[in-house]
Amino acid sequence: MSLEALKSEVPEYAKDLKLNLSSLARETVLDDQKKWGAFLAAAHATGVRPVLKAIEGETADKLSLEARSAAKAAAAIMGMNNVYYRFVHLASAKDYKTLPAKLRMNVIANPGVDKADFELWSLVVSAMNGCGACIDSHEAELRKHGVSAEQIQAAVRIASTVNAIACVIESENAIAA
């Protein structure tokens, strides 16, 4: 499956999502590894089968095995961290901020790809999951690595479009069931 096949599953009322998907696939502000890793991390964060299949297929020859693994790892670890740190951030009791997380996060220290790429993919998933604390943390790290606001915005645009397509497809599948 490919992005073209995925677009064919998006109903006409969501035409803007198809257009955005096409333009983001041609985005040049991100190098290919950052861009396609963002697509893959976002797809895994949705967990929606047609989205996963299409983006897995599209990225198969665009990303190394290490990059593919790291993008998936970013989705996995942020799936955990976003829940935990969103709780810590939103809880009225402030003592949670001083307690150690006691959650294994070894992949963050050694993701197998350039640190900035992994941070970008972690930001993509954090934006999708709505964790402000994680967004701030990853955005600050990206800036330290010289990633521009335009590059960060492009990655988040990918996340928002992939997420919206997943929501539309799930909604349409729910109606059809």
TrEMBL record:
Cited NCBIfam families: ahpD, ahpD_dom
Gene that specifies this protein: ahpD
Matches recorded under Gene3D superfamilies: AhpD-like (1.20.1290.10)
Family listed: Belongs to the AhpD family.
Catalytic reactions of this protein: N(6)-[(R)-dihydrolipoyl]-L-lysyl-[lipoyl-carrier protein] + a hydroperoxide = N(6)-[(R)-lipoyl]-L-lysyl-[lipoyl-carrier protein] + an alcohol + H2O
E.C. number: 1.11.1.28
Functional description taken from the UniProt entry: Antioxidant protein with alkyl hydroperoxidase activity. Required for the reduction of the AhpC active site cysteine residues and for the regeneration of the AhpC enzyme activity.
Disulfide feature: 131-134
InterPro entries associated with the record: AhpD, AhpD-like, AhpD_core, CMD-like
Keywords: Antioxidant, Disulfide bond, Oxidoreductase, Peroxidase, Redox-active center
Name of the protein in question: Alkyl hydroperoxide reductase AhpD
Record-linked PANTHER family: ALKYL HYDROPEROXIDE REDUCTASE AHPD
Enzyme kind, highest EC tier: oxidoreductase
Annotated catalytic residues: 131, 134
Domain Carboxymuconolactone decarboxylase-like: 96-164
